[in-house]
TrEMBL record:
<dbReference type="InterPro" id="IPR046335">
    <property type="entry name" value="LacI/GalR-like_sensor"/>
</dbReference>
<feature type="domain" description="HTH lacI-type">
    <location>
        <begin position="14"/>
        <end position="68"/>
    </location>
</feature>
<dbReference type="InterPro" id="IPR010982">
    <property type="entry name" value="Lambda_DNA-bd_dom_sf"/>
</dbReference>
<dbReference type="InterPro" id="IPR000843">
    <property type="entry name" value="HTH_LacI"/>
</dbReference>
<dbReference type="GO" id="GO:0003700">
    <property type="term" value="F:DNA-binding transcription factor activity"/>
</dbReference>
<dbReference type="Pfam" id="PF13377">
    <property type="entry name" value="Peripla_BP_3"/>
</dbReference>
<dbReference type="GO" id="GO:0000976">
    <property type="term" value="F:transcription cis-regulatory region binding"/>
</dbReference>
<keyword id="KW-0238">DNA-binding</keyword>
<dbReference type="InterPro" id="IPR028082">
    <property type="entry name" value="Peripla_BP_I"/>
</dbReference>
<keyword id="KW-0804">Transcription</keyword>
<protein>
    <submittedName>
        <fullName>Sugar-binding domain protein</fullName>
    </submittedName>
</protein>
<dbReference type="Pfam" id="PF00356">
    <property type="entry name" value="LacI"/>
</dbReference>
<keyword id="KW-0805">Transcription regulation</keyword>
Amino acid sequence: MEGFPEKGIKMGNMTIKDIAKKCGVGVSTVSRAMNNHPDINPKTKELIMKTIEEFNYVPNNSARNLKRIQSKAIAVLVKGIGNTFFSDIVSGLERECQKKNYSCILQHVEEQEDELDIALHIIKEKKLQGLIFLGGSFSHPKEKMEQLEVPYVLSTIRTAGENCEQYAAVSVDDFKESYKMTEYLLQLGHERIAILTAPKEDESIGKLRLMGYAQALKDKKIPVQEELIGYMDAKKDRYSFQTGYKLTKELLKKTDFTALYATSDTLAIGACRALKEAGISVPDECSVAGFDGMEAGEFYIPSITTIRQPVEKIAKATAELLFDMIKGKEVPRQLVFEGELLERESTAFSSCHESVK
C-alpha cells in the first residue's frame, strides 16, 4: 500500500479512479466488477472487490441512481439494415423494451465501419444501460471489448476469435440450417444448384451459409463449382430484391442450373423475377429457395420455400438476456434456436435432371 492514498486522499474519500489506479486497471473494469458484469476475469474482479473493501470505497449512490433514471435506454447497432429480416428483429426488440419501459435507440452501422468504435461513442453520448449488436461478424480483441462499460448481447452474429464463447449471443445455426436447405434441394433430384451469397471476403453469417451449402454438396460427392456461386459486391450490393435480380441474370449468362438457393428471401424474390424475364418457369424449370422466412416470401407468386428463423423468439431472448445482465444476473452464454424449413410453391422435383440455360 506504499505511496497510497495520494494527495491527501482519505480512506473513506476515494474515487473510482483511485481504485482503478491501485488495482492497475481501467475505470471501466472497476465499474464492471461493481456491477457484476460477466465479462471480467474472476481474479481481477476479486482484486478490485478486495481493494474496495480495504479502502472503504463507497460509490456516490445518488449520482449513480440519477444516471440510471436519466439513461433508461439501450441501443441496437445494426449491420445490414437493408435486409428486411433485421427490420423484423428490431421491431421485436422495440416491443420488448416498451414492456420494460426502456427506450430503444437504433443505430445503423455501415459494413466498412467498426461497430465497437460506434458503440463506445454512443455509450458516452446517450449514457446507455446496455447494447445489442445485430448482424455482421464479431472478432474484436479482448482489450477493446473491455472498454465497453455496459452489458451487451450479440444477436444473429457470427462470432470469431478465442473469446467468442464468452459473449452472450442469440442466433440460429446458420451452417446447419443452410446445410438443411441444400440437402432438401438435393433430395428433390437437383445436382446443379446455384447459390446467391455474401461477398467473397465476408466473415459473417453469409460465410456460414455458403459453408453449409458446400458441405451438403461434398457429402453427396458433388463438386462445388465456382461458376454456380453468385457473390455479392461488398461495395455495391445489399441483401435486396435488386441484388438477387442482378446476380441471377449474371449467372444465367455464364452457366446452367436446375435450382437456385438464395441466402436470403429478398435475394430469392429478385432471382424469381430474373428467371421469369428469361422465360424460365419457377418451379417447373428451376426451383428457387430462400432463407429467413420473411412475410413477403409467403405472399409472392410463387410463394418462396425458405428456412424460417424464429424472429419473435430471437428478439425476446435477446432482450431478456440483456435485461438480466443489466440486473446483474447470471445468464447463459449462447442461445441457439432451430430454424424451420417451409416447403412452398417455388420448389419441385427436378424434371429429368435437365438444366436451364
